[in-house]
Amino acid sequence: MHLKIDTSGGVPIYLQIVDQIKRAAAAGRLKPEDPLPSVRQLALDLTINPNTVARAYLELEHQGIIYKRQGQGTYVCTQAPGAARRERHKMVAGLLEKAIAEAAALGMTASEIHSIYDQLMHRYHLEAV
Amino acid sequence: MHLKIDTSGGVPIYLQIVDQIKRAAAAGRLKPEDPLPSVRQLALDLTINPNTVARAYLELEHQGIIYKRQGQGTYVCTQAPGAARRERHKMVAGLLEKAIAEAAALGMTASEIHSIYDQLMHRYHLEAV
Amino acid sequence: MHLKIDTSGGVPIYLQIVDQIKRAAAAGRLKPEDPLPSVRQLALDLTINPNTVARAYLELEHQGIIYKRQGQGTYVCTQAPGAARRERHKMVAGLLEKAIAEAAALGMTASEIHSIYDQLMHRYHLEAV
Amino acid sequence: MHLKIDTSGGVPIYLQIVDQIKRAAAAGRLKPEDPLPSVRQLALDLTINPNTVARAYLELEHQGIIYKRQGQGTYVCTQAPGAARRERHKMVAGLLEKAIAEAAALGMTASEIHSIYDQLMHRYHLEAV
DNA sequence: GTGGTCTAGACCACT
DNA sequence: GTGGTCTAGACCACT
User: Fold this and answer.
1) Quick one: which of A122, B24, D37, D74 has the most CB atoms within 10 Å?
2) pLDDT, tens only, C15-24
3) 3-state SS of B10-32?
């Protein structure tokens, strides 16, 4: 579990934590029942206030990603098998739709979009085999 | 010029105005030297606070999209030929990159991404000819 | 809107606020689109910290009871007609079930329970007509 | 003596133990001078921390339900005849009052409450003869 | 050790 | 004016 906080971008710290932990769960780097660092420990690691970590954990609990065992610690929720995969799909589909809807609204042609898409896939080493 | 404001989604109203006017300019629906509605008029139309419209116009001015003529009104900036097109490209490329970077970070394969992409292109009637 | 906070009972202040506002909505004393007092104002009224009020409002927002309009204030959510009534039913049924399940577990007879029930209904002026 | 611990509901483990032992005494499943399992044994059975069992026993001692004999073990207190019955009555009356007070505060009518009550009595097989 | 609640007070974003 | 975020630090409950 390695989190990166960027205080310059205006994105709330607690949301950065939420996003990165959700992503780790979706990517499978965090598995069901894995323990998370304690509120205090993560606060020390990131040199932020424990309240801010607690806020992030509270949000993740509301979203059903993690749960707390009294006096013991915080753990990743057990999820139905395939949940991480579906979550991953949903995240990416949501972002892709934003991009394509925007392109459509701006009147771009399919081939213009394709060319941007191919370039980016190449840059991220995602060429088809 | 028809703007839609959604107060439910948590996106600042002034940003919704900024985005939609930028998009209109990038799409060519707003051309150089076209007049924009007055701050008061747009505030009345959208039933929002004039301060909010003023803030959006200020932001658009900072971004070089519009300019004010003393005592006359607000107009779309003259842009180098092709500027709208480049702007359009930049917007879509930015969004697409977000989606693809996320997919890469989540360890998705090229073919998984392709399948989502194709589905969405189809839904937005952007099939290749 | 008149809230009573009891700091002696060990019940978190923010939860007391949550409960009382939920109850007011279920009882119909708070109707859809009614404005709530501002975070600062309620904090002053109850002489508690604004953060504590904010915490209560956040929880109510998570539960879909209230929503915020940016820069304007906090309002009661529009609910399907009859929602308040159903909510009321659910609250009371939940509490009654706890009582009756406990009585059953303790091996009490129906007539013992009836006698307690009748006495209490009488005390709360809820006699049948 | 068979105790069930639910770590998911947020109810402190030590309170679950206290409640279940009080209930067993009120129901007559635990009689005066019956021995309780040792702290260590119960902790092993429930796979919880011995401190937690100790805390529950301490609480039960404070409430006059159990007592310790030096070096021998823990036992259920001798109670005045009828004490279990009165305790049972008090528990159920307390819970029923919560439910009925809430219903009254929410403006429910006697017949609404009756209908919920009858349904629940039926579900717990407590119909009048 | 773990997390939860609360205060005091600062600074920011939005309308 | 409105709510949102964050720090610093205290005290509490649970295991």
Assistant:
1) B24
2) 999 999 999 9
3) CCCHHHHHHHHHHHHHHHCCCCC
| Helix (H) or strand (E) segment spanning residue C104 | helix C83-105
Establish how many alpha carbons lie within 13 A of residue A82's alpha carbon, considering only the half-sphere containing its beta carbon.
0
Any CB–CB contact under 8 A between C77 and chain D? no
**Å between B19 CA and nearest CA of chain C:** 18
Which residues make beta-bridge pairs with C73? C69
DSSP structure string for D77-121? PP--TTHHHHHHHHHHHHHHHHHHHHHHHTT--HHHHHHHHHHHH
Cβ pair D95:C99 closer than 8 A: yes
The per-residue pLDDT for range C86-118, each reduced to its tens digit, is: 999 999 999 999 999 999 988 899 999 999 999
Of A44, A22, C13, nearest in space to A52 by CA? A44
The Cβ of residue B2 has, within 10 Å, a number of other Cβ atoms equal to: 7
Q: D65-83 burial string, b = 16+ CB within 10 Å, else e?
A: bbeeeeeeebbbeeeeeee
- Residue A84: how many other CB atoms lie within 10 Å: 20
pTM: 0.87
CA distances from A58 to A54, D9, D99, D110 (A): 6, 16, 30, 40
Between CA C46 and CA C56 the distance in angstroms is 13
Residue A81 DSSP label = T
A98 Cβ contact partners less than 8 Å away, ≥ 6 residues apart = B95, B98, B99
Residue with tokens 């019955």: D85
pLDDT in tens, C68-85: 998 999 999 998 778 889
CB atoms within 10 A of CB A100: 26
- Contact: chain D with chain A (3+ CB pairs below 8 Å): yes
**Residue appearing with tokens 């026993």:** D57
| B120: Cα within 13 Å, side-chain hemisphere | 26
The answer to whether the Cβ–Cβ distance between D27 and C127 falls below 8 Å is no
Q: For C74, list phi and psi in degrees, rounded to 5.
A: -120, 135
Facing residues of B76 across strands? B66
8-state DSSP, A35: B
C-beta contacts of C45-54 below 8 A and 24+ residues apart: C45/C3, C46/C3, C46/C5, C46/C13, C48/C5, C48/C13, C52/C13, C52/C14, C52/C17, C53/C14, C53/C17
Q: Give contacts of A 49-68 with D, CB under 8 A.
A: 67
Write out pLDDT tens, residues C31-48: 999 999 999 999 999 999
How large is the average pLDDT for residues B89-100? 94
